Amino acid sequence: MQARYYKHSLQFKQASGTSRGILTTKDSWFIELQEGGAKGLGECSLLAGLSYDDKPNFEQQLSNLCEAINSEKPLPELTEWPALEMGYEMALLDLNQKNPYTLFPSNFSKGEDLIPINGLVWMGSFDFMNAQIKRLLDNGFNCIKLKIGALNFKNELELLDQIRKEYGPKDVVIRVDANGAFSPVDALEKLKRLSEFDIHSIEQPIAINQHKAMRALCDNSPLPIALDEELIGHFSKKDQENLIRNIKPQYLILKPSLIGGFKRSDQWIEIAESHGIGWWVTSALESNIGLNAIAQWTYKTNFRGNQGLGTGSLFSNNIASPLVIKRGCLWTDKLIPWGKLP
User: What is the C-alpha to C-alpha distance for residues 284 and 292, in angstroms, rounded to an integer?
Assistant: First the structure.
């Protein structure tokens, strides 16, 4: 088996705001495996400032992995390199399947079934966020996710109030994601205010590694809390179990590129369900290569409700793919071919 890698910088169609700043580009590395006449492609997707393996020597570690494969030497340890672990696992799955880009064959990959997703509303001005919401609702989404924490909190409440005056909780499910923007001092009061608008859940209300404060929020919040960034860097099952026992969240948000791939995501699901904790899957700004793999894996799990898999249309130079969004659902359109790789 031979391996090589290359980098692709994805360009946002428009600058996208989060509580950690404005995003204009997003880097991914692709690892390609070849054995005989078969090829397998995997994506190593990094989010600057968030991925555990966002380190200066990331590309060198990827080079070491390819060199070990090519020379048939023992592979470097990838546990603490979750994006590399994800990319390598994806490439192996692709290599071992008969049809390219079909890592987990199913009715979804055959274009015969769908995955309901939430529509993502990026941070920005009141008018900008309001326009996004109206566009998503007009396009048939019944679940939206708002990035909050950048506007004045009063303005964010006004936006939610405006949505609820037009659409009740039976019409539109609203999720919010604070990306750790709230302070432990006033977080509970903010969660109480948010709960007035029948919010489904909030992701990561306070920053990571404040387990005592997060546990107190999970115990007392009228609004269900989902852990997102908090899962990053917890690789052993024992460590994962301890995190869940210490915090006791209502939900987990699984991003395979950030937590080490599909097998490690399966491990989180097993732990969550053993503790009666809900979960769903979200992409982490991968190209359509990674998004396709994540969507196929998600379909093969016992997924519930709307998944966070609607990020493929954000980039101007994404790889063309059969993935399409119709009426708030992700589909595979078998009539659309894959485009050329960068």
Answer: 12
Q: Are residues 121 and 234 in the same domain?
A: yes
Q: Can you read off the two tokens belonging to residue 262?
A: 């599909």
Active-site hit among 26, 145, 190, 255: 255
Candidates 13, 147, 170, 238; catalytic one: 147
Q: Rounded to whole angstroms, how far apart are CA atoms 337 and 18?
A: 33
Residues 123 and 178 in one domain: yes
Q: Say what the pLDDT of residue 131 is.
A: 87
Q: Is 255 a catalytic residue?
A: yes
* Cβ pair 3, 33 in contact under 8 A: yes
- Is 226 domain-assigned? yes
Range of the domain at 48: 2-95
Nearest-Å Rg of the Cα atoms of the chain is 20
Residues 6+ apart with CB under 8 A from 80: 52, 53, 235
pLDDT attached to residue 310: 85
In a domain, 100, yes or no: no
Let me know if 145 is a catalytic residue.
no
Please report the pLDDT score of residue 116 as a whole number: 96
State whether 157 and 25 are in the same domain.
no
The answer to whether 78 and 134 have CB atoms below 8 angstroms apart is no
Single pTM value for the model: 0.94
pLDDT for the residue 302: 79
CATH number for the domain harbouring residue 237: 3.20.20.120
Same domain, 9 and 143: no
pLDDT at 221: 97
Q: Report pLDDT digits (tens) over 258-297.
A: 999 999 999 999 999 999 999 999 999 999 999 999 999 9
**What residues in the chain have per-residue pLDDT under 50?**
none
Tell me the CB-side half-sphere exposure of residue 218, using CA atoms within 13 A.
22
85 and 173 inside one domain: no
Instruction: Please report whether residue 256 resides in a domain.
Output: yes
- Number of structural domains found in the chain: 2
